Structures
1.
Amino acid sequence: MKVKVVSLMLFMTAVTCFAQDDLKEREKQAAFDPAYTSYSRKKPAYVTLKDGTKLEGDIKDVDRKKGQIYRLKISVDGEKKVEIMASDIADLYMAPSGLEQLDKQGSYFNDATKWGKTDAAKHINKGYTMYTNQMVSLKNKKKPAEYLMQVVNPKFSQVIQVFSDPFAKETMSIGVGSLKLAGGIAKSYYVKKGESIVWLTKSNFDEHFERLFMDNEAFRAKYADHKYKWSLLGVYVLDYTEFSLDGAAEESK
């Protein structure tokens, strides 16, 4: 009898360890890019204006509000620097400074191979950070305005886009969560689904979880009895994205 009990305990331990290993691997796949607040003065930036014009030049200055970019000063072809408002820009690829990139490069897992031969893949594979124009109410309080916001889930942003909150506070723990930044886990992000973008925080996560994720039948089935955790936000976004894309593919057949 004792042998059977011991065998059962060993089996349960093995299953638990396997599940934890699976979750850790999933967290790596769903890891968000670090939030960068600096920019390289040695690498050119790539700007696409809303009218389709593409610019390549050196960033001279970046003006921010609550950490979000509302104006660039850029020198193109060595000419005098010009100011461009975020409201005139569709997207921006900008390299972080060498020191900041070195400090954070080991804290996330990034695989841009799924991008294919696009501008995004070309720039991201070279260590550039992706910013897109968004109309947003900062911290859900300010009058909505246009900013260039860093996309931190570029490789799985087809359905839900997650943008950095450069001034986000961090938890004191240093786990292996998918939201890990240097020193802890970010407590807030801006999250966009459809046309709605919200400042999502650890404290208001419960309020928005159902709207963000529970309208998908496959996701709902997987997490029906799950007590969701803030540290798994990246995993939820990745799962929801894959379920949504698989569902759309089935409907198109």
2.
Amino acid sequence: MRRTKFAAVLAAGVLALAGCGDSGSSDDNSNGGGGDGAGSDIKVGLAYDVGGRGDQSFNDSAAAGLDQAKDEFDVQSQESEAEDGEAESAREERLRTFADAGYDPIIAVGFAYGPAVQKVSAEYTDVQFAIIDDSTNTADNVTNLVFAEEQGSFLVGAAAALKTETDHIGFIGGVETPLIQKFQAGYVAGAEAVNPDIQIDVTYLTQPPDFSGFADPARGKTAAQGMYDAGADIVYHAAGGSGGGVFEAASESGNRAIGVDSDQYNTADPSVRDAIMTSMLKNVNVAVYEYLSDIVNGEEVGGTVTYDLAADGVGYSTSGGFIDDIVEQLDEYKQQIVDGDIEVPTTP
């Protein structure tokens, strides 16, 4: 099954899971009057990737989708997050803990949960699982929620090439995996569509199985500062929580950065806000919310659901007004991608 969903703008809050490695818990149904009780017997388990809620990026976007579902459907929820450097068995046990406690569905945030979801979903065939950023699981009780990150990255790459004053830009990936290479491939393709001769520096903070590159702002700052010192004036990061360091380097050096996943102009520390030119939007919130909406309403789930430019599943932000003068050009590129006139690569 391959489906496409439409996007919306959602808000985030703060939860945690007791007994699964987090501090605190959230299992009440207070929603400010948003729900009607239709989903009050549904218990959602959300397993975050490294960085968890509060990363101002990927995990926070997933949290926003859960928050809206709690508000609208009165579902119960518990949350847990992966620890940097943890063994595969820890991810498996996190999912089993949810299943044993009666949580159904269970949502795993990030491709790193792929093997764990495959193994645990086979043990709990009566529980529904969803995983973000992995499309390899074909079990009937698993829904794969995936995105065309390369398409959104193409647009911010074009934006960087249109706004650079040095014809020199950069890309920082958190961990060099096929998923993050999609961001790189799209960004480079978009920049080169504008200027085939543009100089693009590329670096990754860590290599698998070391996933700390998604949660190391200091390393992100050092990498970005090196690019700025070498002449780049705009750097795009796909590095999760490490992006905070990229923004610091951009702000301190008087340059610009491009955020990822969320509109980071609105989520990053106010002291670096003016350095964030735009963000590549990856609407994980929409995927989580719509999946839970289907569960609550008894809709069929399973298979692979793809969120692309045609569905507004990815895109770019205009907060701060820094790219208002090039929106028309970016939207022309977007239409060419949607129409199939531009095929964006998924590998560098």
3.
Amino acid sequence: MDWDDLRIFLAVARAESLSGAGRRLGLDASTMGRRIARLEASIGATLFLKTPQGYALTEEGARLMAPAEAAEQAVTAASEAASHETGIGGQLRIGAPDGCANYLLPQVARQLSDAHPGLEIQIVALPRVFNLSKREADMAIGVSPPETGRLVVQRLVDYRLHLAAHRDYLAASPPLTSRADLRHHRMIGYIPDLIFDRELDYLAETGVEAAAITSNSVSVQMQTIRAGAGMGIVHDFAIPFTPGVVPVLTDEISLTRSFWLLRHADDRASRRLSLLAEALAQALRREVTRLEALVRAELPSADLTARQKVKKISST
């Protein structure tokens, strides 16, 4: 049994399909199937059962997981020890909620690529929790620390959110001077049954019972707000990317949340991934600080604009 066979076995076990594993390794499904059949023949045991849901590990397959992962760690460590490059190369797959992936990780990826030209960065943006045990990503960014799983959890940075709306919407809508006025406004937020983490239930903190327009995507919510369709709770770091959108009621509604970096516990032995995790953390902190500073610089003028608009409407 050689490492290449174990590499294919691990990919299928984690993806639970030949096609999914093949995409990760750059091989077609038929080749993956032949390699798994060859491995099973060589050890005299069936490793997978094909079910309607995909490929499931048998008892023999489950027993092979631990030694296969140990081999994976050994190969990774040997590769890192043999490398004398000043930069860090190879593939790095980062999983993140779409708000972070859209508004923060592009700038972070640029910084990492500049520092490590041999690095291939993959950003997987999904509004859900990533399964690192199945190696859906090398590391993931979450909005709350997980309570279970063999993970290394690191708090990255706090970020702020405020109620925001486009200036055109504010100019055409009823006055907004306090939280009580929200009942006269169209709200935008998450689809309630698709909120995958309790930390994302923003509207509950405004006192608004339901939103008129909803999406499971932060980016879709932000673009809907930018279109002047209503107002919603948004990340401060996203506001600089949406001209015309301004924070409102900042003295009454202000939320703070945190990003967490999640890694599989077995990856602590990887110097490469540890260095990349620290570089990612530092770059993300800098980017949140930079973008939120831009918003704070505009807050006085934004609040003044809103108050002048309210005063104008009230006097007519």
